[in-house]
Request: fold
Amino acid sequence: CVEEEASPCCVAARAAADAVAAAPPSSPAEDSVYLVDDAWQDQRGATKRLAEFAGHPVVVAMIFTHCSYACPRIVADMKAIAKAADAAGRDDVRYVLVSMDDVRDTPERLAAFAVERDITGPRWTLLHGAEASVQVLSAVLGVRFKRAPSGDFAHSNLVAVLDDQGRIVHRQEGLDLAPDDAAASITKLKR
Reply:
């Protein structure tokens, strides 16, 4: 969280991230992204919780659909990971894009973005959430962002791979990276 450091959203986001980071690894659920139990809306308007992805490896990133530079490249990187994972026989992976733009990225806008980017298959989910939910998840994933007066965002470029219990097993930082490391982290996961 880089917006007003003392804002309630930032305080809540830091507390949630600290709780996940401080949890001992003795219980798989204690270090899971799925501890963020907020309600989200997907691109179809359905209510979702992150824990609904449990049981599958998940590749997750945070974007905003009005982005013209980094976010399309993050989506392209995720599609490359999907292609590599599929080639390795991992058709059980789910791909989740979470919007950091709680104002403009409505479920309808996310649905249109999915069509524009050709990510409409059943394994792709795009999520819209409340500002506080977005802040908490970004802190847990380690994604930093700040809303500009224009409504756009300055943000880090991160794709995370989660195991079937929602634990981060790989982080890919940057753009236009080969999918090999992310795909390898997926293929190492149990089925």
Observations:
- The longest helix spans residues 70-87.
- The helical segments are 8-22, 70-87, 107-116, 131-141, 180-187.
